[in-house]
TrEMBL record:
Organism: Paraburkholderia domus
GO MF annotation terms: DNA binding; DNA strand exchange activity
InterPro entries (UniProt xref): Resolv_N, Resolvase-like_N_sf, SSR_resolvase
Domain Resolvase/invertase-type recombinase catalytic: 6-147
Keyword set, alphabetical order: DNA recombination, DNA-binding
Protein name: Resolvase/invertase-type recombinase catalytic domain-containing protein
Amino acid sequence: MATCKCVIYYRVSTARQGSPGLGLEDQTKVVTDYLGDGAWRLVGEFTEIETVKSANSFVSRPELHRALEICKRKRATLIIANLGRLSRSVRFVNGLIEEGVDFKAADMPHADKFMIQAHAIMAEWERVQNSDRMKAALAAAKARGVVLGATGPANLRANIETRQKAAEAFAKSVAKVFAGFKAAGLTQRAMAEELNRLGITSTRGGQWNASQVGPVLKRLLRKPARR
């Protein structure tokens, strides 16, 4: 069996290290499972400590640049645990493709770099959609007289109502996806993992965990109140 050279690149955030799928231990397991068939020879391994500024900045990833240099020099493939740990920015992924280095996402073993690019486009689209929904909800709240950032019982009530409406709108937007998960008999943890794999962001624009899936399921099961 021919052996291919590879360089592993991990990215972790000290603020979110404990979140499912985001920690170094989780990424290591995914990559180890992917490389377990013996077809790869490791020639480099790098871990990036994420900062707010470097989250989607190609120039602010020194470890990534070191990994790419070795890939070019050794003609190796860059291995990442999943696309979300690289970036959810299409511009960032395009920049990596332009570097001329082959790369693979361990959670999408059969995807080539162009399929990964398409996946990044969908992930970015979903993030923009979530952002637009939130902006629309805030604009509607302001139009109803809610003073954003202000305190007091009246404004607190209005803000709660705004959040509830935004949550309802989000639940409706992913209703078909969750219906498919339920039909397949997935657990809440498995649903969270699948949502992350598909690049669908949570209500706050981040990755999912099992505790975030529960409230959405409850909203979808809740019968509308009679008027």
